């Protein structure tokens, strides 16, 4: 279904924008590595354009683990001094939560010396070597600036890096003027042009959109469990209200992505053990506009309109635009009611979770006052217990996925270092 809502190129742009929300520096580095990777493959030859584009997506995600395991502002530390944590976490994140399971091992080994990877029995063994040189060229050219001489890579030929990868990178740099393009940022044009050849299947797009939702868990796992509960509630309300399949799908993707703007929020504020100041609350509220700006023009406008209205309320008491019922529809109403209930059930550092009785009261009052769409809130009330129970189970299952990933991380890490 996702194919109707997003093109392959826009999917890649959305991945890049999501990385950017978490940290601009890492996102830029990832985009540059993705570009260098594409030129290396082009230079080597024998690849179709769409195959190159697939490796570009992988390269774009090569440091995703760092958002979880490291202070992403300290790039040189986690890339050069202690690269294992982000390599292992990134590998597992992509293996379990993305459509790149087969290529994910390239992430695991992207900082391991050639002397240790040369005998790997792995389909993408050589492409892994290319990713390694693409990555180091960008780290070096950033670190050494104008003094950087890429011939220095010869010193590591056959030890850290594959001799053929070293020759190829020098050839590609000369042929495509890579270093100049990185410095004057004109590489971006080539990068975006190549994305035209990314061919993602419907299933892959769906998995990538889910992966973006899981990215919110790199910052705060509770966002993933809440979103999972909200998705379930939306689906059940939609089903009971007999809305169309198209509407159900649009609500689904809106629910999946509605809090992606939270990725830009400072970690300290997300679970601050106190009441936030007005200024801090206003900052958190900007997550809705950030979600909108991230999605706009990349995914269907109808999905954006649902996602960005999740904190609006039918009586105009919501934010960011204090929209009223007259300009909103059932799809927006469903996400709003689901979000409101899940948020109320969440314990905050400064208040306990609302009880089911209090939430039921709020829904009833909201129908009378016009805060909620009456039909949606009433449908929820009629099926409250059944929906909430299953929604909680779904939320717990999503958290379990993360805990499994963490356990797996510790095991793989022990065996890896
Ligand atoms: Fe990197
Ligand atoms: Fe890395
Ligand atoms: Fe939100």
What's this model, at a glance?
The protein has 417 residues and is an all-alpha fold.
Question: Mean of residue pLDDT?
Answer: 95
Distance between the termini: 42 Å
Helix/strand class: mainly alpha
Helix content: 55-70%
Q: Globular, elongated, flat, extended or rod-shaped: what is the shape?
A: elongated
Low-confidence segments, ≥5 residues, pLDDT <50?
none
The main pleated sheet reads as: none
SSE string, helix = H, strand = E? HHHHHHHHHHHHHHHHHHHHHHH
Q: What is the element layout, followed by pairings?
A:
Layout: H1 8-22, H2 24-44, H3 49-60, H4 66-69, H5 75-81, H6 84-97, H7 104-108, H8 114-117, H9 125-144, H10 163-176, H11 178-183, H12 187-195, H13 202-219, H14 221-240, H15 245-257, H16 267-270, H17 278-285, H18 287-295, H19 301-307, H20 330-344, H21 356-369, H22 374-382, H23 384-416
Helix pairs in contact: 1-2, 1-13, 2-3, 2-9, 2-10, 2-12, 6-23, 13-14, 14-15, 14-20, 14-23, 15-19, 15-20, 21-22
The structure holds fe (ii) ion (3 copies).
Written account of the structure:
The protein is mostly helical and 417 residues long. It folds into 2 domains: 2-200; 220-405, Hypothetical protein af1432, CATH 1.10.3210.10. The chain has 23 helices and no strands. The protein has helices at residues 8-22, 24-44, 49-60, 66-69, 75-81, 84-97, 104-108, 114-117, 125-144, 163-176, 178-183, 187-195, 202-219, 221-240, 245-257, 267-270, 278-285, 287-295, 301-307, 330-344, 356-369, 374-382, 384-416. Helix 14 (221-240) runs antiparallel to helix 15 (245-257). The mean pLDDT is 95.
